[in-house]
Amino acid sequence: MSILFEPATTDDADALVRVAVAAFHHDSILYPHIEVGGPPGYDSPAVMRQKIMQDICYKIVEATHIIGGIVLFAKTGEHYHLDLIFIHPEHHNRGIGTQAMSFIENEHPATRWSLDTPIWAIRNIHFYEKSGYQKMGEFEDSDTRLIAFEKQLSPKFPKDSL
C-alpha cells in the first residue's frame, strides 16, 4: 500500500484527533511510568480545526484511511517548526515517520527545522536523531520537561537555476 501526504481540511479534524489520541495514549504502554495524555489540545477536534486553519497540516493516508497527521508552521521564511507528528500505533515500524520527515523537508524547503519532544520519549528521541536532528537543550512546558531539537539543512536551489 502506498502512503499519501495530503493537506488536511477541517472535515478531517475528528479523524485526525482519533489517530492522535491513539498515538499519544500508546506512550503510556511504551512508558508505563507516564500517565495517559499528550500535548495540549491533542484530544480536541476544535483545537485540531484551529491548527488546520492557522498552521500547515497534513493527513497521512493509506487506502483512504487517515493513519497519521503532521502539523508544522513557519517561524521565518527559512525556519520551520514541526509542532506535531503522529502515526496510529498499528502503523508503527513501517518507515512512515521517515517518509513523513522526508516529505515535509522536500515540500517546505528551509535551512532550519526545529521540534521538541518529552525527555522521557526515548523512541521519539532516537527517531529524531536518526532523522538528523541534534539536541539543542531542555525546557519546561506545561509541567513536562522537553528536549529541543534542531536540524540545519543546506539551502535548496530551484531546479531552473542549475
Structure report:
- The protein has 162 residues and is α+β, with helices and mostly antiparallel strands.
- The protein has a single domain, classed as 3-Layer(aba) Sandwich (Aminopeptidase).
- It is 30% helix and 35% strand.
- The chain is built from 4 helices and 7 strands; from the N terminus they run βααβββαβαββ.
- The protein has helices at residues 13-30, 45-54, 96-107, 122-130, and strands at residues 3-7, 56-62, 65-76, 79-87, 112-118, 134-141, 144-152.
- A 7-stranded mixed β-sheet has the order 1-2-3-4-5-7-6, sandwiched between helices.
- β6 (134-141) and β7 (144-152) form a beta hairpin.
- The protein is globular and about 35 Å long.
- The mean pLDDT is 91.
Task: Produce the secondary structure layout.
Layout: E1 3-7, H1 13-30, H2 45-54, E2 56-62, E3 65-76, E4 79-87, H3 96-107, E5 112-118, H4 122-130, E6 134-141, E7 144-152
Parallel strand pairs: 4-5
Antiparallel strand pairs: 1-2, 2-3, 3-4, 5-7, 6-7
Helix pairs in contact: 1-2
